[in-house]
Design goal:
Radius of gyration of chain B: 16 Å
Oligomer: heterodimer
Low-confidence stretches of chain A: 1-7
Helix content of chain B: 55-70%
Structural class of chain A: mainly alpha
Shape of chain A: globular
Mean pLDDT of chain B: 88
Mean pLDDT of chain A: 84
Distance between the termini of chain A: 39 Å
Number of domains of chain B: 1
Number of helices of chain A: 6
Largest sheet of chain B: none
Radius of gyration of chain A: 14 Å
Largest sheet of chain A: 2 strands, antiparallel
Largest interface: A-B, 25 and 18 residues
Number of strands of chain B: 0
Chain lengths: 90, 147
């Protein structure tokens, strides 16, 4: 376990697609925060990788987007969307 | 309580940019330093009272800038705020206990009431503000902080 940024609680770095999905579904940070019952800034910290959400919060966010949690969060960096799209069409 | 002191109100966001948060933390530390120096020169607690008033004002600003995560009751915070709060408290644990030990020694050496009051008040000011001070310095930028 190591700290991802100075001053943060120790955590592994969790990669997320949250900003992209939020933009795609037109959900504001404030709306999402209200839907999952956290502070607005918490969503911002998660999106910027400053904070890794608990399993409970990850599941709640996934439920809002009606997606499996691993579609939103990953321990490995997500492949660029362009690469995925190219693979899918090939 | 939260709304009353605007600890989480959006109209206080101007105090929550990292630059201002750190400036407030610096000001708070400056008042603490002045308090330590003044206390060592004046033997009367009431002589340093204005500095405690200043420290109180600085502590309110410090709490506004950190959304008071170090001092609010647990159920008023979410998991991220609790995690940052825990990290701040964990980091100040050893310095705080060491300060408490040194303060205890100071009081034991000078058994007069006035010195004990001054040492106690100073110790309280140092220990109580530590978690907020650390949080103000180390919290990451907020989402809309563009300074």
């Amino acid at each position: 376990m190591k700290s991802s940024r100075k001053g943060n609680p120790p955590s592994v770095h969790v990669h997320t697609r949250l900003p992209m999905l939020r933009a795609e579904r037109d959900i504001s940070r404030k709306d999402l925060a209200e839907l999952v019952g956290v502070h607005l800034q918490t969503i911002g910290y998660i999106e910027r990788g400053e904070y890794s959400p608990s399993l409970e919060l990850g599941l709640k966010i996934a439920r809002v987007f009606k997606l499996p949690v691993e579609a939103l969060f990953s321990l490995e960096p997500f492949a660029p969307l362009s690469a995925t799209a190219l693979t899918d069409t090939a | 309580m939260t709304q009353l002191f605007c600890f989480d109100a959006s109209w206080c966001d101007r105090f929550r940019t990292r630059r201002r948060r750190r400036a407030i933390a610096g000001a708070y530390a400056g008042v603490l330093g002045a308090l330590i120096i003044t206390t060592s020169f004046f033997n009367s607690f009431f002589a340093v009272m204005p500095l405690y008033a200043l420290l109180f004002a600085a502590s309110i600003l410090l709490n506004v800038s950190t959304r008071s995560i170090a001092e609010l009751v647990t159920h008023a915070l979410d998991e991220q705020q609790m995690a940052f709060r825990n990290a701040a408290y964990q980091r100040v644990y050893w310095p705080a206990t060491m300060l408490a030990f040194l303060g205890g020694l100071l009081v034991a050496r000078h058994s007069d009431w006035e010195t004990a009051l001054q040492a106690g008040a100073l110790l309280w000011a140092l220990l109580a503000g530590m978690p907020s001070l650390l949080a103000a310095w180390t919290l990451p930028r907020e989402a809309d902080d563009e300074e």
